[in-house]
Amino acid sequence: MKKIVSFILLFSVTVAVFAQKKPHKIEVQIQGVKDTTLLLGYHYGEKKLVSDTIHVDSKGRGAFVGDSLLDGGLYLILTPDYRYFEIMIDNPDQTFKITTDTTDLVGNLKIEGSESNTVFLQYQRKSSELYKIRKPALDKLKELHAQDTSKFNKKKLEARRDSIEMFRNRVDSVRNVMVAYEDNIIAQHPDYLLSAILNCTHEIEVPDYPRDADGNITDSLFKYTYMKNHYFDKINLGDERLLRTPVYESKIDDYFDKQIFQIPDSIIPQVDFVMNRILEQEKKGYEGKMYYNTLHHLFMKYQNPKYMGLDNIFVHIMKNYYLNGHVPARVVKDTAYMNKIQDRYTKMVHNQIGVQATDLLVYKMGNDTLDENMGWYRLSQVKSPYVVIYFWDTDCGHCKKIIPEWHKLYRENEFKKKGVESFMVYTQTDMEKWKKFITEQDMFDFINVFDPYQNTNFRTTYDIYSTPVVYVLNKERKIIAKRLPPETVVEVLNRELEQMNKKK
User: In whole angstroms, what is the distance from residue 426 CA to residue 389 CA?
Assistant: First the structure.
């Protein structure tokens, strides 16, 4: 039995049905509910959405009825007290009867007329049965791992190690029984949605490393490469029923978050690999639901990525899919949406990690006083091995905190002596405010510049929609870091300077 307190808040009411005129009729009787409403919902990745609602009579009887087949997926029937049980909606197996009662929704669940749900119910009960057998061993392992072994003698350490091995073997033994049971379901019912879900949850068996005649590993990346290339071997990426389950989206996330090196050069080819594989298996071109839902999920995933530099993937998706017409026709025709993507692409393409920084012709303040040696100056004229560019504003509350903090760290680490210049770009045009701030903060060890006529287009080329924003450039003036707090900028610079000195 499961509870979702905020289930309704996650729901957005929608009815998703196939075009063909075939009926579905799911009769329900739940003892313990009367004269109330039941919801038929379904999983959609992490979300849970509503497909239909019905009113049940004084005996808890009602029926979800329609003249079309429901989209296949893992559905839920929700009671008024926010408890639910799950059922399979599998084509063409959509006319059946469900009975249960509120004392134990899952334990007392009976389904008549649906073979796929009969198999699913048997699977749920087998899983629950084996979990009860495995749980004592899992609890004991948790207890053993939580022990403080700092004062254990050799004998106690060996006893603990033996116990851990014993309980692990028990857990593995029960898991092997469950895997064998699941494999049997897949073999007997390969077309069932349950089989598709189980194929998503099963781990890939990776062969051992290749070795030479002496037993030495000949390819240290073999397991990584194998997993990367075979991760989806058991999954039909054209099976859109998987969209209405909680497993497909998490499978995609696991692949891109854990199975691939977290750098753009590793992830971008795999985006293309997965999307091409979906095209091959779904056979619906850019209009396929699996194709566009997966693409959109990746689009949103890398729009605001967890790690610096992974926004390069977002730029790749915008350019090679959305702006190249490799999306459904309805998306291409949405002019307002496509204009937003074009605008975002334009503002991001010039400031990706690894890209040559755009040169800037700006007005420079003197090095020692406010007015001496002022004049036009280019970013490309800076000769130091590293340049830190800060875009800032005198009226920005965050800038008033960050810029002095960066200045303090810059001096403490003696970056100027080590070959790091700080190129400070004032984003507004009020020269008096600019001079006052620089004087008050004694920022004459920085290269202080601004764009008095606002004609350098820095807001687009450096994606400045708020301040402060920082970029770190190397000797070739390629962007090696961006949008970091000052203390992290220091870490990046110290690492780069250390590597530079080692090369020398």
Answer: 11
